[in-house]
């Protein structure tokens, strides 16, 4: 019976007000559609998909594949170079005309090429020895710089550069004539295991080649002529032209946000960096001790600009940096004044802005051509053209060609070619064109324009941006990449693109079924909304906190005489605050005894400095450890409000304690010393409820730009919520479903529950729930047992839920949620594993045998591909799908199904029609499998891809793989992802046939 959906009126007879809660992550998208007017949960579910990242490292798979691809290209280029070297050696008669690369394999009694390179300096080498030397030098031609410049010493490139510099010094200190002679004296001549101390440059090897040719010529060798030397050097020096590559790369650069026909400018141009510097300086806010705030004046800002873009290094400040600590001193700020958003501990090291491009330009030209540097500073257009050429080029010949078209002398071009044109500082493009940047800078240089927003408005660009961003809205989301292109944005992150693609499918499915919702609430996963630097900082802080927790747990365990596992999280949190507060109650100054702290839970309490019910602030910076009486006396007040009354602790003494404590963060001190919360409550609530991260704003803009929302008078139809607000509500409503009230992350259905809470989350709801929490505080319910207390809390919370039975309905709906999965059916990804082995034949079971280059031990390869010359073998990597062929006539009419696993390496054969379907057989090599009979090939096979939901009679499971060794498939439970038993392929018949369940984004 088909159920008719009323999209207009709900069960209470009221017009529907639909709110869609979205919880997109890197591998899932939880969603919940709720009719808040009629108190209905209309749709609830989870869409799962594979994240394009490595499961262990989190690194993008595209980056990993790019690295392997680069390695393969280097190997191919080396082989091509050696091929040309072989041709040159034959052309000049040094080796026989029928010689192959095996000619250069050393045998017992032969000297190694490195020893011959040393001998060649002092004696005449015979023909084969000279050929071995030249072939060896051509094979490993050393490090060739491509404009990378200085690199982080901890990076791989930085380690190589450090090793090169150290080796150059080491060689200079010896009497070695060539780099080969120096390497021959070392215990090892090759780098091993990430060690780069044997690195040498290409220039050093070319120099050695010239010396060896001169030496052999002097000894009378007929194979050391200048013509032979020039031809050989040409082969060693050959590099692929980057001209076409650079042109294609530049074609991918997007267009300006303001002028759609203008290309974006490089970030390293002088104008771009000046605009960014003005913008950064305009965002600085100074908070004074009395609570007032101000921005930098035009004079103060211009002084900073003069330092940042100075042509000469400043004494004691060679980078011409402007740090917040120096700015504080220059502005003569008091100790109570601070820069908004800048921790006190960071002021000495944190820079206001880093003009990376200008800094590199100054460091390069200041010593070699200071006149050119000053000319570029005075002629901004020329400076921009130079830096555009640098950003465009990835090779020296390309850079030289680009600079030739500018009004520069040969000496000036030579000086500019010393720039590290491939470094990160001189690469990348912004969102604005040169034309737009010029307009902004002209405004920013006016003294009355103090920030970028004002400049954009004054020069007319704001109107252009708003007009250009207008898109035709509809009841469907356009593809995320299309929106990115049309709005002039840039986002090449494959993780974000895949997540947004799956979110789009869910939203469009909801819109098809119910129409466009009235509101969409979105909470982005941290992996999506934060930049990598922020995620790295969080990971570093979490690691530090974890070590601190382990230390505290150990100390408490020692004091209590128990194990660290018996120490609770609440005890650890109290102890941490106790240490931070230097063992005192900050409010009263009373000492907190450690014995009672860890033994008596009623002795102390954790208090919100600024009441949570008024601010929604639940971070560590808003928590202190106080004696129970202090907390009860303070109640729903700030410290200042409480201490303003008679009988309360002294404010002056409290203020002194706070200021003298060096362990407290600046933010916590500000909370403790807050005097005017009433006027700031709205600001706190907005911050605690609304996510302002860049990616969150971008996703909201995507939804708002594309969807035609109902005209219901709402100011905003798309709202980004914060994780801390929804997490707090979820815990208070008992919707975590895990042990100890924690979220059960092993069950994918928790994403749907999250989406329910996200959909109903609002500022007023958070505040109402916080006040109920205060009314059911343990000091009020202490006389109840655990069951009575929980019932009292839930009864009180029911009055502030979206509707009375909301939490119970979510729990009921949670049990019926069945996550669906997006299963890619394209053959993209890794075809083979990375290691190539020496082929050694086939064993008795028909399996390929391989051996490592340095071993005679047989390795059973299993599923592998042998090269055409049968000299090497490589393992097949990823599976494409499992094809099941049905033969209804087999087994005397009962029918049979034959398993034919297909791998991505088989795709070429599938396309050209040469692939032969074979029946998998346990413990047998793939080559020995029998072909699928003609009777089973009358109809197309059933194709099952990894992640597909498969049903066989009453069995339902998600396909997780096929083991060709035992010829059996495996499945996992669609809810728990735990491996489950299933019928074997051999038991399938006409009456027990499998089929793939096609999953849509929503029910």
Q: What is the strand and helix layout of this fold?
A:
Elements: E1 18-24, E2 28-35, E3 40-48, H1 61-91, H2 113-119, H3 127-139, H4 156-172, H5 179-184, H6 202-218, H7 226-237, H8 243-251, E4 264-266, H9 270-282, E5 285-287, E6 293-295, H10 298-308, H11 324-331, E7 338-339, H12 356-368, H13 370-378, H14 380-392, H15 396-404, H16 410-416, E8 429-433, H17 434-444, H18 452-458, H19 461-468, H20 480-486, H21 494-514, E9 519-522, H22 526-529, H23 532-560, H24 569-580, H25 594-599, E10 604-608, H26 612-615, E11 623-627, H27 628-634, H28 639-643, H29 651-660, H30 666-672, H31 681-689, H32 694-706, E12 718-720, H33 723-732, H34 750-760, H35 763-775, H36 778-781, H37 786-798, H38 806-814, E13 820-821, E14 832-842, E15 848-851, E16 859-862, E17 864-866, E18 872-876, E19 879-887, E20 896-903, H39 907-912, E21 942-944, E22 949-952, E23 955-963, E24 968-972, E25 979-980, E26 994-997
Parallel strand pairs: 1-9, 3-13, 9-12
Antiparallel strand pairs: 1-2, 2-3, 4-8, 5-6, 5-7, 10-11, 14-15, 14-18, 15-16, 17-18, 19-20, 19-21, 22-23, 22-26, 23-24, 24-25
Helix pairs in contact: 1-3, 1-7, 2-3, 6-7, 9-10, 9-17, 12-13, 13-14, 14-15, 17-18, 23-24
């Amino acid at each position: 019976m088909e159920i008719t959906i009323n999209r207009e009126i709900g069960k209470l007879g009221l017009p529907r007000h639909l709110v869609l809660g979205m919880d997109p992550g890197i591998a899932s998208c939880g969603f919940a559609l709720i009719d808040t007017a009629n108190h209905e949960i209309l749709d609830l579910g989870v869409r799962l998909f594979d994240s394009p990242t490595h499961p262990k490292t989190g690194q993008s798979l595209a980056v990993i594949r790019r690295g392997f691809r680069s390695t393969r290209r280097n190997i191919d280029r080396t082989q091509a170079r050696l091929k040309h070297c072989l041709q040159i050696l034959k052309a000049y008669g040094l080796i026989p005309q029928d010689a192959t690369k095996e000619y250069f394999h050393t045998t017992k009694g032969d000297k190694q090429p490195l020893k011959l390179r040393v001998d060649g300096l002092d004696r005449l080498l015979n023909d084969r020895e000279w050929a071995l030397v030249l072939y060896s030098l051509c094979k490993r031609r050393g490090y060739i710089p491509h404009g990378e410049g200085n690199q982080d010493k901890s990076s791989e490139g930085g380690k190589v550069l450090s090793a090169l510099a150290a080796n150059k010094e080491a060689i200079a200190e010896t009497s070695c004539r060539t780099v080969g002679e120096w390497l021959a004296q070392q215990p090892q001549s090759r780098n091993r295991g990430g060690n780069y101390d044997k690195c040498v440059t290409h220039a050093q090897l070319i120099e050695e080649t010239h010396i060896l040719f001169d030496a052999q010529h002097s000894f009378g060798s007929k194979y050391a002529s200048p013509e032979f030397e020039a031809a050989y050097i040409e082969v060693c020096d050959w590099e692929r032209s980057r001209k076409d590559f650079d042109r294609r790369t530049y074609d991918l650069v997007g267009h300006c946000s303001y002028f759609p026909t203008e290309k974006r400018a490089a970030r390293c141009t002088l104008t771009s960096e000046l605009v960014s510097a003005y913008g950064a300086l305009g965002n600085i806010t100074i908070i004074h001790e009395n609570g007032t705030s101000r921005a930098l004046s035009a004079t103060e800002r211009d002084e900073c600009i003069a330092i940042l873009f100075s042509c000469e290094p400043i004494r004691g400040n060679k980078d011409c940096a402007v740090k917040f600590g120096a700015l504080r001193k220059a502005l003569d700020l008091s100790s109570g004044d601070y820069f908004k958003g800048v921790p006190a501990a960071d002021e000495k090291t944190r820079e206001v802005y880093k003009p990376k491009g200008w800094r590199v330009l100054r460091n390069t030209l200041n010593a070699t051509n200071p006149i050119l540097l000053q000319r570029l500073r005075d002629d901004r257009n020329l400076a921009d053209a130079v830096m555009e050429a640098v950003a465009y080029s990835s090779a020296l010949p390309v850079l030289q060609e680009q600079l030739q078209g500018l009004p520069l002398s040969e000496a000036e071009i030579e000086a500019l070619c010393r720039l590290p044109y491939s470094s990160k500082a001189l690469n990348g493009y912004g969102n604005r064109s040169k034309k737009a940047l010029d307009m902004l800078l002209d405004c920013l240089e006016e003294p009355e324009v103090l920030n970028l927003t004002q400049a954009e408005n004054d020069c007319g660009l704001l109107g252009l941006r708003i007009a250009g961003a207008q898109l035709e809205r509809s009841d469907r989301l356009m593809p995320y990449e299309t929106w990115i292109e049309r709005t002039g944005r840039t986002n090449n992150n494959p993780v974000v693109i895949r997540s947004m693609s799956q979110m789009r499918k869910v939203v469009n499915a909801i819109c098809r079924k119910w129409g466009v919702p009235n509101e969409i609430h979105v909470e982005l996963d941290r992996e999506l909304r934060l930049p990598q630097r922020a995620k790295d900082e969080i990971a570093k802080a979490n690691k530090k906190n974890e070590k601190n927790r382990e230390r505290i747990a150990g100390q408490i365990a020692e004091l209590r005489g128990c194990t660290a596992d018996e120490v609770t999280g609440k005890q650890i949190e109290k102890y941490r605050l106790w240490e931070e507060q230097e063992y005192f109650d900050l409010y009263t100054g009373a000492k907190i005894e450690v014995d009672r702290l860890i033994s008596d839970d009623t002795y102390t309490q954790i208090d919100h400095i600024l009441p949570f019910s008024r601010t929604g602030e639940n971070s560590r910076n808003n928590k202190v450890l106080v004696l129970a009486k202090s907390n009860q006396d303070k109640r729903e007040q700030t410290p200042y409000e409480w201490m303003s009354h008679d009988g309360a602790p002294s404010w002056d003494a409290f203020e002194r304690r706070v200021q003298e404590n060096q362990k407290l963060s600046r933010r916590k001190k500000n909370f403790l010393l807050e005097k005017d919360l009433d006027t700031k409550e709205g600001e706190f609530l907005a911050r605690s409820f609304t996510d302002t991260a860049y990616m969150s704003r971008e996703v909201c803009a995507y939804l708002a730009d594309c969807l035609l929302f109902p005209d219901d008078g709402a100011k905003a139809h798309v709202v980004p919520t914060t994780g801390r607000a929804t997490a707090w509500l979820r815990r208070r409503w008992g919707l975590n479903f895990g042990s100890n009230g924690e979220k059960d992350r092993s069950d994918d259905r928790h994403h749907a529950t999250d989406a329910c809470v996200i959909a109903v989350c609002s500022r007023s709801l958070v505040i109402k729930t916080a006040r109920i929490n205060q009314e059911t505080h343990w000091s009020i319910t202490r006389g109840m047992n655990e069951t009575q207390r929980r019932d009292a809390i839930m009864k009180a919370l029911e009055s502030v839920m979206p509707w009375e039975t909301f939490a119970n309905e979510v729990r009921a709906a949670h049990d019926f949620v069945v996550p669906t999965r997006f299963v890619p059916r394209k053959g993209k990804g890794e075809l083979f594993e990375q290691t190539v082995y020496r082929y050694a034949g086939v064993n008795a079971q028909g399996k390929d045998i391989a051996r490592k280059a340095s071993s005679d031990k047989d390795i059973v390869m299993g599923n592998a591909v042998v090269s055409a010359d049968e000299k090497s073998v490589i393992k097949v990597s990823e599976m494409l799908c499992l094809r099941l062929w049905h033969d209804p006539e087999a087994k005397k009419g009962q029918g049979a199904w034959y398993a034919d696993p297909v791998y991505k390496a088989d795709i070429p054969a599938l396309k050209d029609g040469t692939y032969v379907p074979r029946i998998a057989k346990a413990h047998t090599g793939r080559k020995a499998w029998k072909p699928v009979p003609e009777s089973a090939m009358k109809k197309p096979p059933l194709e099952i891809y990894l992640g597909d939901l498969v049903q066989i009679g009453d069995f339902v499971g998600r396909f997780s793989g096929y083991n060709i060794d035992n010829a059996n498939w495996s499945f996992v439970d669609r809810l728990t992802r735990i491996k489950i038993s299933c019928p074997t392929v051999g038991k399938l018949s006409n009456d027990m046939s499998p089929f793939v369940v096609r999953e849509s984004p929503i029910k």
